[in-house]
Amino acid sequence: MKEKGFPKDFLWGASTSAYQVEGATYEDGKKASQQDVINKDSYEKFGFATAEIASDQYHHYKEDVAMMKEMGFSAYRFSIAWSRVFPDGTGEVNEKGIQYYRDLIKELKDNGIEPIVTLYHYDCPWTLVEKYGGWLDRQIVKDFEYYARYIINEFKDQVKIWTTINEQSIIVQYWTQKCYIPEELLDGKHDQLRYQINHHMNLAQAIANKLVHELVPGGIVGAPLGYSCIYPLSAKPEDVMAMQNAQALRNDYYTDIYFKGIYNKAAQTYLEEHGLAPIIEEGDMELISDPKAISDFLAINYYASECAKWCEDDGSHTMRWSGVNRSGKKGEIDGFETHPGFYQMCKNPLLDTTDWDWAIDPIGMEYLLRDLYNRYNKPLMITENGLGAYDTLTADGKVHDDYRIEYLRGHIAACKRAIDKGVELLAYCPWSSVDLLSTSNGVKKRYGFVYIDRTDDDPKECKRIRKDSFYWYKKVIESNGEELE
Ligand code: BGP
Fold first, then answer.
1. What CATH number does the domain containing 368 carry?
2. What is the predicted pLDDT for the residue at 397?
3. Catalytic site residue 384?
4. Residue 461's pLDDT is what?
5. How far, in Å, is the centroid of ligand 1 from the Cα of 389?
6. Spans of the chain, pLDDT less than 50
7. Does the residue 143 lie in any domain?
């Protein structure tokens, strides 16, 4: 009988992404990425911090790695900023930029921490956006290959676990947050471009998979996907069908590419009928389905489960995309994704939510792990999971984040139950190692084990302070996931 619980070589750690944590946007030769531009705009519109300093990890990486070691991390998942290495996207490498990642990776390895590298996390070099619109244009696939080949070659001996393009599913839903999209494309008539961007990313991730398989001895590679399990609002057959449709378009549309090299039929048919399907050129599907381009594992970013209900086709063909809660007050989400005649997302009345309306659901984690493993039979890892919350620094310099501990405890227990039911889970890297810039809500929405003493308006010194969850997670890791209380 297999022993129960987390395997001995299980990887424990946490995640971040370059533009959300590094800062030093224009230092040592780095040029802007689209996120530097988008975040400057949200500073002006909503008062959220810019990416210029973020958590200043660029200057604090040694201190941050020391804290990871103190917690007992065996892995750290982070991304490389394309515009730090190639400030203009292609051409000459920026020596100081690549040196930063050499130093960071060395620091991690010296401390016994396995680097899990993400090649791309929303931060397309701005020069490429100016040149041809970034991911809107197919040229990006070639430029991405140039960048990815360089990075994979550079680190092929030190980095064995690679993840490709972060959260294609979320990029489709929130394209203006995750990509720079010019105003004139926002009238709803250009929504096909969401799926065109996604198709370009499918080609790019296929190339990256091939490169890892060809260049990295013993390397494994997979996509980090924003993935939520979806429940039907009721047991009404129409709602259950809506759930299946949502599952096809929001989830299987991506995982079928990664593991089977095909576009999910139900989803693709829906997109074709509504003029949303991407243009696929000759040879594209051959590349995507090449055995060397198939992922070795899925890296899952899971925060919340979702709920779907039936939505009559009113003939209007008007769809809407996922809403967002900008205020951080429960209930102020500004709408739900709607596809008349296919499905509509809705609030799950049975679940509590975060202040930003994300449903809190540890059982959803167990459900999706078992479901994905049963359907694809490939190893899985958790590369994001966490609770965005307002944290308070108390007078005695502490942060009592018992709500975060409760959230993580539930999700780790869910991972354990899934493992006990046979799921091959390789790693748990929640979001995030330190507090950082949220993609949609500034720095006041915090996720870290380490508090970064700054506000949206004032970066102060970005002093690092261990939260209660830091000490709790240390014990979890020490006991290999047995001690959750
Ligand atoms: C994921 C992203 C991360 C991270 C996280 C939390 O979608 O991969 O970059 O930010 O969500 O989301 P938010 O920052 O919007 O709270």
1. 3.20.20.80
2. 94
3. yes
4. 96
5. 13
6. none
7. yes
| Nearest atom, ligand 1, residue 17 CA | 9
Pick the closest to residue 30 from 126, 97, 78 (CA basis): 97
Number of H helices, E strands in the chain: 17, 14
pLDDT of residue 316: 76
Per-residue pLDDT at 6? 97
pLDDT of amino acid 318:
79
- Coil vs helix vs strand at 450: strand
What is the number of the ligand 1 atom nearest to the C-alpha of 386? 6
Per the structure, the complete domain to which residue 90 belongs is given by 11-234+245-306+359-478
Best mutation site among 301, 404, 443 for ligand 1 pocket (most ligand atoms within 8 Å of CB): 301
Determine the pLDDT at residue 3: 72
In a domain, 353, yes or no: no
Query: How much distance in Å is there from the Cα of 5 to the middle of ligand 1?
Result: 28
Rounded to 5°, the CA angle 252-172-191 comes to 115
- pLDDT value, residue 394: 96
Choose, from 167, 306, 337, 366, the residue flagged as catalytic.
167
Pocket of ligand 1 (CB under 6 A): 17, 20, 166-167, 170, 226, 301, 384, 388, 431, 438-441, 445
pLDDT at 155: 98
**344 assigned to some structural domain:** no
pLDDT at 294: 98
| 393 vs 373: CA distance, rounded Å | 40
**Which H/E stretch holds residue 38?**
helix 34-46
